[in-house]
Amino acid sequence: xxxxxxxxxxxxxxxxxxxxxxxxxxxxxxxxxxxxxxxxxxxxxxxxxxxxxxxxxxxxxxxxxxxxxxxxxxxxxxxxxxxxxxxxxxxxxxxxxxxxxxxxxxxxxxxxxxxxxxxxxxxxxxxxxxxxxxxxxxxxxxxxxxxxxxxxxxxxxxxxxxxxxxxxxxxxxxxxxxxxxxxxxxxxxxxxxxxxxxxxxxxxxxxxxxxxxxxxxxxxxxxxxxxxxxxxxxxxxxxxxxxxx
Length: 245
Description:
The chain is an alpha/beta fold. The chain has a single domain (10-225), classed as Decaprenyl diphosphate synthase-like (Undecaprenyl pyrophosphate synthetase). 43% of the residues lie in helices and 14% in strands. It has 8 helices and 6 strands, in the order βααβαβαβααββαα. It has helices at 22-28, 33-54, 73-97, 112-124, 141-154, 161-167, 213-224, 234-238; strands at residues 14-18, 58-65, 99-102, 131-139, 178-181, 200-203. A 6-stranded parallel beta sheet has the order 3-4-2-1-5-6, with helices on both faces. It is globular and about 55 Å long. It starts with 13 loop residues before the first strand and ends in a 7-residue tail after the last helix. The relative contact order is 0.18.
């Protein structure tokens, strides 16, 4: 396990993941696309366990984007059904494991049963503190920024970086330290556009259902080797924080 050899400060507090490649994984095996999404759910279950074991405090995953409505109707319907079933099956175990659930995204276009299930899962797990799991569902980075700006405009507030950040869908957690995208694509696809400003990026060729523990550890190890300067120079980071008295 990579965390055994890394100091706690080298483990990202917040990991975000674009879970790409479910459909291609299924196609390679001559299976329907929904079979890939089902297997992808198994991978997510494992990543939640690995994250808690390694000391990650926040995990945010891109489950269904605003643009995914453009996919074939049977796939969209299948994804909605998969989410509804997952809520029933997974939430009790997540509750016991100490996971706090959030579902950032636009609830207005979702089936009533799914929307109510998301709300109930958030309520049931609100007191948990071991891991915050954000499952972005019907989410888009542009939607997030627009809805935050609209809230500020509605109340006549001045739009500043701090004010806008407070209205974003992930205002309850710090910005991601590390973004992992699987599936071999090298883009962020309208995911957390505001929050990823200073995140480290790791792109994996593994299709999401085939993403394993070794690849997760590889991403964490790459993160640990990065120098995060946030606009400063290396020399500034290495300088003592304060002169000795």
